[in-house]
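My current task is to audit a protein record that another person submitted. I have pasted the whole thing underneath without changing anything:
***
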Amino acid sequence: MIKRLANVKTRTNTGFDHVMNEMGPQTPFGIKRLKEQKPFFPGEEASLRRELDRIGSLFDIAREDEKYISKISDIFMDMKDVEFTVERSKSSILTVVEIFEMKCLLLKMEQLSSLFEKQGKKIPDEFVLSDIRVLLDELDPRGDRLNTFYIYEEFSKKLADLRNEKRMLETGVRKSQKERREKLHREKGIMLTPKFDCVVSKSDEEAIKTFEAAPELERSCQDIMSVTFQLVRTEKEIETIEKTEMLAFQIEEEEEKIREKLSKRVWAFQKEIRENCMRIGSFDLTLAKALYAIRHTCVKPEIIKDYAVYIKDGRQLQAEEILDSKDKEYMPVSISLDMGVTCITGANMGGKTVSLKMIGLTVLLAQYGYFVPCKSAKIGLSNFIQMLMGDSQSLERGLSSFGSEMEELKEIFDHCTERSLIMVDEIASGTNPAEGLALTKSVIDFLKEGPYISVITTHFDVGEGGGKVKNMQVTGLANADFTKLDRELRYANRKERIGIIGKYMDYRLSPAKEGKTIPKDAINIAKMLGIENEIIENAKKYLKGEKG
């Protein structure tokens, strides 16, 4: 049974699949490696570190020498997967096109090896290709190293002799026909085309009579409008043409023998070819990882043995791209997670969900062997990762949002194992507040006793929860300049107000100090958006318990 780290929904919700879709390996071998990639699990830290080191090597090369990377990209261009051709070579005779494609791939392998040699020790040994020049020389007997293929005469002396004899006979026939064409023109004024024929209109009866009277010509075909005459072949020419046809058959036989021999040679090198394709795929994907890391300012995570996650200035790439497209700045978030439960509170506009996605994305990327979008990160590997997002529906099963949440929560509990990362966004928000709070507290009590790292975003005030529960809060509008904010809102239209408030929101997380009331940004936001003051004041009284 294949071990699963995270389900499809978790990979999608965290933005991991979005990153994978943008990774962009260039060769069919790299694309295959991307599709087949597997995560690293606890106990495989050393292997993961080696993978990250390989990315680091290519990361450094790519930053130092863009032209070198451009040359590699040119080699990768139009590379074709020859697996089917290699397998066919075991028991079939390859076609000229198949041998041509094989030669093209071997040429690219040779070019790539040459580039690797120029970098020396900077290219990790895992990517160095096996030497396939012996096979390439056999497919390229002229040694011209061109992206073309033909059954060259250099493949066989017999082939060269047969072709030479055929050319001489064809040249003799052609010379004889030219001489007779010139004589016909000289003596009878009849002009034939280079193909030794002539098309005459049926309305030109005199010309037709002239052509029919010439014993050197014969009708070859006709249509409604015209008649075509061609030069009659002499007995010697016919005999010579028959010989050339026999030679053509012999040439085909010899070419087939050559293709059969080359096919066997391809199969003899099948191990080296396949191994090189695999190494090209690994190199291509690793280079894609490095280039992606450069484009998105990602860093190599530190892989630790302890089960903990420490992220400094982490970014959720999908959200960052959306903000960039709107010329808005993304505010990075830092967080430290140890075994136990971390609760994140804050208003709906406070970016709690984006922070949760950022955590999941960072851990998944690190565990699949990628650099991560933050200033620094220390990651302890998980056996199981799952994210439960609110507002899920299961209409085909007739389940409400709350019902779907409970099913997903059960799936989490069914699969939880040692070193599980569990992320829950607004649990029980689809039911009444009293039951929602009770369920949230109960889930926290259950999770805090397990060997898990759990992160829960919630509107509910879940209390302190003991040493295994850490409360974090979104800074929100706590440090906002409300005078300046009110002034901006006063002259803004309805559509602009949300964006203005968002500009003043501080999405960073900070510990909720014991005994300190968690800021209620929801009431502040409602007030700034023009909700009646009477409603705002009553809400504050309810919070204080002055109204019942």
Q: What stands out?
A: Residues 235-268 form the longest helix (34 residues). The two ends are 56 Å apart (CA to CA).
